[in-house]
Amino acid sequence: MYWLPYNKKLKEFSRKLRNHSTLGEILLWKQLRAGSMMDYTFNRQKPLDRYIVDFYCKPLNLVIEIDGAYHFEPEQRVKDAERQKFLEEMGLYFLRFTDQEIRKDMDFVLKAIREYVTTYESKHSVIPYRRKTKLVETVNS
Q1: Superfamily of domain 8-123
Q2: Is CB count within 10 Å lower at the N or C end of the chain?
Q3: H-type helices in 20-61, by residue range?
Q4: In this predicted model, what pLDDT tens digit does every residue of 106-141 receive, in sequence order?
Q5: How far is CA 61 from CA 24, 36, 56, 124, in A?
Q6: Phi, psi of 17 (to 5 degrees)
Q7: H or E element in which residue 56 lies
C-alpha cells in the first residue's frame, strides 16, 4: 500500500509511548534507529490508521511488534490478532518478538529482521536500499 491513513488524534499518545518505552523497545530501537538496520529507516510508536505499532518501516511495509507479558492474556491475544489482521489487509507485514527474546537473544531477533529484509527485497524485486554517499572526485592538476 502506498499511503496509510494517519490519525492525528493518536499523535500525543504515540509521543507518550515513546517517552515510556519498555526495556525491550529501548534495546531494539538502539539496533534499528538511524538506518542501522541495513540502512532502512524505522519509526517507533507509529500511528497507522486507528492503531499505534511499536516499529514501522515504510519502504518494507514492515511492522515489528514486541509482545510483553500482557500480550499473552486471552483477551489481549484476540485484540492483537484483530489489529494485525486489519493492518495486514492494508498490505503490511508483521514480525513479532517477545520482550524476553529481545532481552535474551538479540542476535536471533536481528537475524530474523535481516532475513525478512533480504526476502522482501528479492520477492519484490527491490534494489537493496543503501544510503547515498557523496562521491568525492579528485582532480589532477
Answers
A1: VSR Endonuclease (3.40.960.10)
A2: C
A3: 23-32
A4: 999 999 999 999 999 999 877 665 554 433 444 444
A5: 22, 17, 8, 11
A6: -60, -40
A7: strand 51-57
